[in-house]
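Box 3.1 A note on notation
Throughout this textbook, protein chains are presented in two layers. The first layer is the amino acid sequence; the second is a token string describing backbone geometry. Keep the layers aligned when reading.
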Amino acid sequence: MGKVHLDPQGFSLAGASALDDIGPHNPVESSAMIATPARPFADPAVVAEIDRLRRELHAVILAHFYQEPAIQDVADHVGDSLYLAQQAAATDAEVIVFAGVHFMAETAKILNPDKLVLVPDLTAGCSLADGCPAEAFAAWLAGYPDHKVVSYINCSAATKALSDIICTSSNAVRVVESFPPDQPLVFAPDRFLGRWVAKETGRPLVLWPGSCEVHEVFSAIRLEELREAHPDAVVAAHPECPEIILDQADHVGSTSSILAFARRTPAREIIVVTEAGILHQMQKENPDKALIPAPGADETCSCNLCPHMRKNTIAKLLACMRDRSPELTVDPALGRRAVVPLDRMLALSRQSPA
């Protein structure tokens, strides 16, 4: 098992954002639950107008699995961070409309500096990206001058620019294994993903102490209760979850990996331990299976919903296309530095596995 060193001089995350605009969390129940988002479908007139604007702008709409179902259903491409980065790099569209959080759209702009990148809500951020500010990260890295830096894509352009290569949860193991065995590595900003990668690869990793405010609050006790209530269910968890959660999982992987697991498992019930937006695609692909969203520790909020992802709505998506705003921009000089580790990741992804 790979050793993990969590540097005590690292920087703590800010407190979790409020979830005031999200409804109450469903308690653990004895029967399978399907999370029902507030806006499961778009008005046909809204969809028609989005389609018209898509043609007028020569635009492509990219959406993450954690977006509300209405947005997923109108997108040209729906996927995880790796897939969406690949689609952004390959598109010939003149305009990229990115329904996700800030770092995702920023990645698309870095890969397409001459294209217009629009976002439904410019304030849709990420606790991981916010918890690893570039200046603090650079000061911390000064203590590890002989280390190469592997940064999770959930970080800012400025943090990417300090990195040797970027990874996603889909390819983090492969990225780490691409370095010689004796090469010391720093992994940032998600310590839980880093610990899982260290365990999978047997590599020692120095971890920046960041975490996702959604995945870190899943309750191990309540998950165990849910498993007892559904003894035939399998558990699929995202590696951003704490180790105490991952130890209960039958499958650990990225959102795309969880979707693939759901398709191939013979189990008829699946407990899903990641942001609940993924349930939309999972249910479309597995209409005969019961999907059970794992609860957080706090019953007063929907802690399995990302408050940042939920800032985007189908109405905001339409408005940003209509108004050509908000536009996401990246300083060109910063973009030229940040694209280097991104290109390394994309090049590694194009190679056939050894």
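The chain has a mean pLDDT of 87. The domain at 127-213 is CATH 3.40.50.10800 (Rossmann fold).
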